[in-house]
Amino acid sequence: MNTTNLTTDPLASIRAKLSACIQCGTCTGSCPNDFAMDVTPRYLWRQVLAGETRKIFLSQTFLMCSSCYCCTLRCPRGLPLTEAMSNLKQIGVQLGFTTKTPTALFYRQFLESVRRHGRVHEMEMMSGWFWAVKNPMLPLKFSSLGLKLMSKGKISLLGPSGNRINLSNLFRKVTELENQA
Amino acid sequence: MSHATGHILVVGAGIGGMRTAMDLAETGHAVTLVEHAPHVGGLLASLDHQFPTNHCGMCRMLPRLDRDQSVQACLRKGLTHERIHIRTDTDIMAIDGDTGNLTVTLRQKSGYVDARRCMGCGACADVCPVDIPDPFNAGLSTRKAIHSPLPHAWPALYQIDGTACTRCGECRTVCPTNAIVLPAGEKSHFRVLVVDDEAIVRESIRDWLREEEGFHVDVADSGPAGLSLLTNAPYHLMLLDIKMPGMDGVDVLRQASTLSPDTQVIMMTAFATVETAVEAMKIGAMDYLIKPFEPDALIPKVMQVYDRVAAMTDQTIQVQAVILNAGTTLYDPSSGKNNLGYQTHPGVVTSLEFERIISNSGPFAGKLVRPKDDRPVQRLAWLQCVGSRDFQSDGDFCSSVCCMISIKEAVLAREKYGPNLDAAIYYMDMRTYDKSFQRYRDAAERDHGIRFVRGRVHTMIIDPETQDLVIRYADRSGDMQESIVDMAVLAIGQRPARAMPKLADMCHLPLNSWGFAETQPFSLTRTAKPGIFLGGSFTGLKDIRETVILSSAAGLNASRALQSGVTKPVTDALPAPRTRDVSRELPAIRILICTCHQALQIDTDLLSRRLRPCPSLLGIDIVTAICTPEGSEAIGRILNASDFNRLLVAACPQEMHSGIRRDLAQMTGLDRNLIDCVDIHTPIFRKGLTEHPDIHAEMAHILDMGIHRLAGANPLASELTPIHHHALVVGGGVAGMTAALALADHGVPVDLVEKNATLGGNLCWIQETLQGDKIPPFRAELEQKISKHPNITLYTQTTVAGFSGQTGGFVTTLEGPEKKVTTSRHGAVILATGGMETPVQGYGYGQSPAILTQKELEEQIATHALNIGDPGSVVMIQCAGTREEPRNYCSRVCCATSLKQAMMLKSQNPELAVYILYRDMMTYGFTEHLYTRARKAGVVFIAYDPEAKPTVMVDGNDVRVRVMEPVLNRVLEIQADRVILAAGMIPSPNTDICGIFGIKPDPDGFYQEADIKWRPVESTREGVFVCGIGLSPGTISESIATAEAAAQKALALLFRPEILRSRTTARVRHSLCSLCQLCISACPYGARQMESDLNRIVIDPLMCQGCGACAAICPNDAAVMDEWLPQHMFGVIDAALA
Lengths: 181, 1138
Hints:
Number of strands of chain B: 57
CATH class of the largest domain in chain B: Alpha Beta
Strand content of chain A: under 5%
Radius of gyration of chain A: 19 Å
Oligomer: heterodimer
Distance between the termini of chain A: 11 Å
Shape of chain B: globular
CATH topology of the largest domain in chain B: FAD/NAD(P)-binding domain
């Protein structure tokens, strides 16, 4: 795992991106996932500026970001907020803060499925995720949605039809490039 | 004695341009005032109310000395001044040459209506079939193609919008005075060039335009052929194909724009190359047509160009200086992403539109409804920073004015529509940075119930069922809030004037990143190009007060540039009044009636019978058109008889405003006061000539009033008040030095008084400005100029001990070192006694050497005495003791100073932690950009509420600051190596300067101005002018601007040896006066005083403005207005009621 730029302050690069923030709250007001976040985006940016690294990675806020780019489009200071969210996700993973959270596991299963088939095999991804989360109640929560999707032919046990390509080589190359950077 | 005067061009006739023009005219210069719009007044013509009075006060800008030079009427209706030549509908095409010798090309559009004939009756607009949006009502209502640009203008002159007019000719048939001249011109002189490689296109266009329309048409089959034709002869219009073999249309366009820049180009394009055509429009093409097209598509576009060319006349004038005062434009919120739903959601309006909606002269007659669906409004929200403080709309600056406009509008709305109206303002920082702003804001919250909500709203959501507007924002604590309103007012920011790129290009002015013109260091009006000055809000982001100050300052600097001795005076400083003395004759009145080109048929015998019998009336003469040269000749013949001593002119409203009284006074040798004009045309033509029951009775009615007024006119010549050509400037800081130099450069001897041993004031401790200009060399340069100037006498260690006398002849007692007393006479006084940093109390000040004021920090930075440990931290606390009672005002400079000092510290040590604890960052204007830079440099900003101020804890060497961080909602404790207190400024406290000079201080001890918006550098006493920090806190260049403005005002008083007193002034009949002194408190101008030596009420004739308040309040009829004596007024009233 690449940790070269994290030797001193993991948030320094994000802080530099956000320093012009005026705490106006447009990002919070624009966020469609705000309801699911434990702290608001504005609060999160303030924490970044205040250097509260541990608290930031205890929160789930940045993992709830669905990269809709609303905040980036609207920020009166023109700050790259979605990019900062995604940086937090990366750093969180790199520092090992977030490897065990359900969201991080979900990301992992998603990528794993894409690696194998070149696209998402929903059944495989979900079962992999249920297994990784190790919560026996979780599959029940999704069963009705799954049946509904299956009855309409949206997902199938056999996985998606059409061309499938194994992307392992691509993934390996990406990892190599990341490690060089 | 008088200074050199010249001809100065002022570009833009908004309030700034009017101020500059009037100032220069009052100081003897001839002024040409050019305006792009069809009327004067600019943006302010549409605004009914200004804070803090919530009234209009534009008339307060009118000249107060020599009042008879200008029409003393509402400035929103129009401006008339003897030395100001106003040209509306005019653009500047070129400016060439240097100071003292500039050649300016002007292009005037025609309004197609003869201004001399138009009566403003409006018959034409009644029949006009074309409706277009009315810019006066911000496009919320419509007007006709023929219209009066301002509904309240007087005289109301109509004009035609050439692009909207369909040439139906209806208006011509109804105009009673044949004033309408539809564009005709010689069509065969209009030259069109068609460039296309397809013969069929070329030839059909030629046939359409030549055979059908009668234009001159040439054709070329390729780009080079077209260009060679263009080189040989000029063309008005070129129709240019884009896709041609060899040289394509865009290349031809590029070359043509340098060969013949005045040629208008319309591109012809196939559908596939429309994008190229759009690109071509960016490099100068006027329009494009998509092939194939019919004559119906082509001809209107050609006619549009033809009409414009036919209607324009170019003229060059020679001027000695140019002042660009073209104002700003407002941000268009429908541009860009339009996330606030402007023009798509009902109920979203701009602040300008709101002002029109609530105006009684507006589109809804003052009813508060939504423009799109007429729904009544009960819940209102103002959204701040629309187009300002926003990278998304390229506006990393604060527009400075929108906060106060919103507060004013909210207050007006609550006052007008009652307390049930919910009014809330959504803001980030409420920028109440100027004089009186903070108290106005507090009163809005406290007394008017306006809600101030801190939150930035991004998107307007509309409820599809109720059509309500839904506002969603994150409050301070991060909770999402939703609020439902009927109407949202967008506080739109400012953008550069539309003419800016063109004018900047002509004058080689540098522009800043946002397209506003830049000025020289330490000046807000001087540019790098000699002879070109910038006034008012042209440099961006100014409110009325600053606009007025900067306009006066620009006038001063332009006038000063003429004082080098190169130019010779072109206007007579004081026209010698040579009048026939008729004071011993009985009134003998002749009447001149203008029939306006025989539109009126007058029977003089019948008219004489209708007039009330009057022994003073000699006879009636008829003139066909008084305003034409033939009319003047006819008048000359009639007036050869010298049997009369008073003259009554009955004509149209234009004549009441024209120079006809002056011209007739010259022709007859009568005093101007004995010549009067009445408007007989408006009432007759408005009713309609044919429908009017009896025009002779109507005329007789008006003439009777005029006769009674003239019969009572005072035949004695106006008196002259001598002016002592010597000025006193009190205070040797930057403002005082600037004012003294400005006057001295105009040849006025100046006594400059400074209480300390050295000059400089606050310049002595400031190191550099926000822009990085160094202060010490600037101060040294000023001091050297003062000491070398032959017209300046410097008195150091001197104070003013006594002051008496009347305007123009004050007697001043100066007390020098060792109590040496001198007495001298001064015509005018400029007070610049300055201010100082407020002595701090609280925040642990004095308990530790680590706690400093801004001034102390500046001194420590300068002497390198500041040793902060590494890594160190500095905490700056803004508003330490200000913006709350008893010092409830913003000192304007401290936020910017903190940013400056933070950046200085950061540049020395980037690792240093700097925290700025603030209430509202008052980084108005372009300082906002510095605020952004400071944030980017890592300065941490923490907002605090006045209810939970930061606390400073001192424990030996350990200093800590505790502050509530509102976003994290947590108390932070910062260990601080230095705590810097921004304590603001107070006026210089040493002497009772206001008491000595008999002027009023404001509640905080600064000088009270005569009117905060319209007369910002005049004190409450005529002849005493105020500037610098003693007037209000400000930056160095702002103080300099107030000093220049004050000097300009003083020059209007000082530039001539004597001033003709106005006719209409108050007088005391001492035999009737009981000395009750009611009139003294009634006088709004402070012109009356109780002179205890004489035991009499004394009036300063230059201060009296003839308002008549004293005459109304006097119980004994002892206070009278000359020219408006009761016996004459009753005659006029009787005639009016008859």
